[in-house]
Sequence to fold (389 residues):
Amino acid sequence: MFETLTEQPADALLALIGLFRDDPRQGKLDLGVGVYRDDTGATPIMKAVKAAEGVLLETRTTKSYLGPEGDLVFVDLLKPIVFGADPGERVVGVQTPGGTGALRLGAELLAAARPGARVLVGTPTWPNHAPIIRATGLELALHPFFDVATQRLDFAALTVAVGAAGPGDVVLLHGCCHNPAGADLDDAEWDELAELLAARGVTPFVDLAYQGLGRGLEADARGTRRLVERLPEVLIAYSCDKNFGLYRERVGALYALAADAAAAETVKSNMAALARVNWSMPPDHGAAIVRTVLEDGELTALWRAELLEMGDRVRAVRAAIAAAEPRLAVLARQQGMFSTLPLTPEQIRRLRTDHAVYMAGSGRINLAGLRVGDVPAFVEALAAVGFPG
Ligand SMILES: Cc1ncc(COP(=O)(O)O)c(C=O)c1O
Fold:
């Protein structure tokens, strides 16, 4: 049976983690891994999450099955955070195993509605987007989104791609904190895009994985909300794994805005049926934590404050880099944990071997891997390999 299989490449970032761990040098810097780090280099459990786990330990009386939709109280409690005002009966959702599960379920929903539909994706993007889209039999159509050399978001290329698309086509959009570019649309661009999508009949599929880690909880949802206001149908893949620090618990949700309440119920029944054949039911613990936080005013306030602090930390690192090297000032205008620097493979290699600075081979850096105090050393290491040129 298995002799037809070919070896698949290991995750390059995981290999980097091993190299970093085994590097004995003092002051080594890890900008590779894609998780939030605090000032001590740890990825801590948030205090609100710990408190919620304590509550669950005391109050949980069963581990019985929940159903393919997961915990619908969790799904509802998250709605005001994602949509602002009550989005009404046109919005339905189910709980998913992380944002990845939401993307996969969303892609399968699209494939069920329109087999082989075209999904426009701007490059560069999160490396899992294209395989997920292809795995569900959808057609991937790439267009440029961000030019790494000039650090410019190519809004014109996005509008050309959407302008040439039509009903039955989908465009995948990063809701905020673009991974790996850090480049987000501004409000005027979201407005213009919403109008164009409406005019062309193209359906947006929003990947909202980092709400609160860019400009703030409200501002990071503005683009998504604009699309929901303006369009008849929107699909949103949401992750709580980053903004609640619940990575390994796998917490997310897939939401859909449909033309009316009846259509929304049909969509939801399809989401549940698709979930059933994928994972049957999502894991509960992480969603139960989020639910416990959001059901309690004090825990919600604590979570919001902690999230704000995380965002502030990343913004402070970005500002420090911009101040230390004015030619990297663009980093202070980008959002979220990631940026991608136009480094050559040789520069990336020398940063690792000569300066103990670790980053992805693409030049993507996780700003949360730095403390403000590390910035001078980081900028010096860049200069030593001739960057910026
Ligand atoms: C852009 C983007 N979307 C989705 C995800 C998936 O997140 P999760 O860990 O919740 O599956 C990630 C994770 O890195 C991401 O960067």
